Structure formats: C-alpha cells, structure tokens
Amino acid sequence: MKKYVLPLLLISCTITRAQERLTMQDAILMALEHNYDIRTAEIAQKQAQRNNTLGNAGFSPVINAGVTASESHNNVRSDLANGSQQNNPNAKNTNVNPAVTANWTLFDGGRMFFVKKQLNEAEALSETQFRAQIQATVSKVIQTYAQVTLQQKQMMAIDTALKLAVERMKLAELKYRTGAGAKVDYLQARVDYNARQDDSVTYLNTFANACDSLSVLMGNNDGKLYKVDDSLTINLNLIPADMDRLKEINLSLDAYRHNSNISRLNADIAKTYHLPTLSFSGTYAYNRSTSATGFALFTRSYGINGLFNLSIPVFSGGNIRRQSGIASLQAMRDELLFERHYTIIGRQYRTAWRNYRLAIAAYNLARENISFARENIEVQAARFRVGIGTTLELREAENGYVQALVRLYTAQYNVKVGETQMLELENKLITRK
Predict the structure, then answer these.
(1) What tens digit of pLDDT does each residue of 386-408 get?
(2) What's the average model confidence in pLDDT over 316-340?
(3) What is the domain partition of the chain in residue ranges?
C-alpha cells in the first residue's frame, strides 16, 4: 500500500521543510514594525506634527540678515564747476551694506488663530489616520492568519479523508481478492483516493497563496510558508456597542469629523480677508562707501528704520466674497459627508453583528454535528468490514465526516472574522498608550 501514499508524502515533506513557525501575536508584531501602509501613515503623522507650529500659523515675525558688497574700477575724468579737473585712470569705488530686516504681521483679522486651530486639527487627523491604519492592518493580519489556519486545518481534513479512503481501499481490495466483494468497490475506492489527492494539491496551493498574503502584510516578500496555530482563540460573548457610543469611538468617523472641522475653520479663515491687515517692517542697516573721485571720498551710515503698513480691502472684484462662499459650502459638504459615513458605519456594524451571531450559531451546530458524523463513520466502517454495509454507504459516511470537519473549521474561521470586524469598528483591536 506504500505506492498509494508516496506521492502525497513527498509533497508533505517538501512543504514541511519550507515551513516556519508563526503565531498570531508574532504576525501582528511583525506587521506593526514592517507593514508599508503603517510606516507611510507614521511619516504623514510626523509631517503634520512638524507643520503644527506658531510660526507656520503666522504668529512669529520673519527676520532676515543679509549683506551686499560691491567694488568698481573706472577711468574717470571730471570737469568741476570751479574749473578744476579730476583725472583718475583707475578710480576705485567700494560699497558695503549689511542689514537685518524684520517683518511682522500684527493683525490679520484673527486669521493666524484660525490657522493654528486648523493645524491642530490636521495633526489630530493625521494621528487618527495613523491609528486607523494600524487598526486596519491588525484586522487584516488577524483575518489573513485565520485564513491560513483554516487552510491548514482543511488540509488536515483532507489528510483524514485520504486515510479513510486508504482504509476503504484496503478493505475493498481484500474483499475483492478473496471473492467476498466486487471489483467495482475497489475501483470506486481508488477513484475516491485519487480525487482526495487532487483536493490536497488544490488546498496546498490555496494555503501557499494565503501565506503569501500574510507575508505581504508583515512587510516580507520572501514567499515563505508558515506553520500556524492549529486552533483559533475565539470570543463567543461579544456584546454590541451603543450606536451613539460608536459615533464617538470609531476611528473612520473620527477622521471625517476632523475633516469637517478643518473645512469649517477654512471658512472662518476666508472671512478674515474682509478685515484690514496691520503689519510692521523694521530694518537695521549699516552702509559704508568709498570713492576715489567726487566730493565725498568716504561715507558711513547706520541706524534703524521702521514702517507700519495698514492694508484695508476695499474692492477685489467680489473674489473675497466668492472664496468665502465656496469655503462655507465646502464646510457644509464635509459635514454631510460625516453624517453619510455615520450611516454607512452603522450599516456595516449591524451587518458585522448579524454575521457574528450567525457564525456562532453555525459553529455551535458544527461542534455538535462532528460527534454524530464521527460515530456514523465508525458504524458504517464496521458494517462494511463484516459485509453488511455497502461501499456506497461507507463512502457517504466518509464524505459526511470530512464535510463536517470542513464546516467546523469554516465556522470557527467565520466567528473569528466576525469578531475581528466588530472589534475594528469599535476601535478595540489596539490600545492607545
């Protein structure tokens, strides 16, 4: 009988040698450190943090220091009014002018205060998006890990089916050789065994694809095959959150809320352009110049200059009013988008909750059914062994047991997926430090 199981053993040995042990916790930790989406979201958060300064909002003055220097050599001839002449074939003139200038907006209609609030909202938005990306990635890792576990357990179910097919094939061949059974029973058993081998190869391919998806989420591109946990830890006692509470804790909704606040502040900023602007400009300058010809051979000056500038918008072709109106409409639009997304999140949460409860019911039924399927196959195997049962009855019992195993594993996977989706919507997959 070794000739029947050799091909499958070769495949299994190849897979085993290439596998790497991986727990769900390890997968999550690797994704948190190496996932590309999380890393790009973290960079965006740091950019928003660095943008959120008083200087960027316009509170601080702008101070610049500079210097200009020039030198010239000219052939000069001058006829002066007193009748004298100045002739210098190489007249050297120099000029040095260092200066420090300061520009400071003293009043802009309160625009700088609104801009600072907007920068605060932008930083909060980037933090929310960063946490949401972590939450989404952890959710994907858990669900993909559960998918790998499901495929691994389904391969175990196929292995069980292969063993059952081998046993039936042995019995059918023995009965056929001794004349106690028909050859067709043996041929059917061999056909079923070959079909199970084909199922095994298919599941191995699906398992490899699931491992590859998990690797990508962890930031790897090595195509490893993983040996994951044989069972999933599932929670059968989740309680749905209150919808008003969900409105406050859901990260996706929080991002829409920050966008709405930013648009409202942008509308406030647009209104400030109707108001006057007062600014101050100051300069401390030093000037030194020399001349080989002329009346002033040497000049030096230094001191402080100051200027206040008041700008009052009188007429701009209606552009200020137009921009203010557009900003107000954008604020209304983003508020509507927030309310719309709230209804979408509510529907998603109700759907996730219904799927979770359905998965629990299916899981409990599958756990109860597996004992009946196991007992049924034991009875049918005993009946076939003594010649009472038929190969068709034993074959149906085998199929029923394998399908019961697959349903149990699938139900456990569906419970884990439903649990994860609910916790993601409730912002409970990660904790904020």
Answers:
(1) 777 666 677 777 777 878 888 89
(2) 93
(3) 2-34+108-275+317-425
Task: Examine the pLDDT at 12 and tell me if it is beyond 50.
Answer: no
* Nearest Cα to Cα of residue 104 among 248, 268, 290, 278: 278
Q: By mean pLDDT, which of 13-22, 61-70, 367-376 is the weakest?
A: 13-22
Q: What is the dihedral of CA 158, 164, 169, 171, to 10 degrees?
A: 180
Residue 4: is its pLDDT beyond 60?
A: no
226 closest CA partner among 234, 241, 215, 218: 215
The CATH class for the domain spanning 2-34+108-275+317-425 reads: mainly alpha
Q: Pick the residue with more confidence: 363 or 398?
A: 363
CB 58 within 8 A of CB 52: no
Residue 74 has pLDDT above 80, yes or no: no
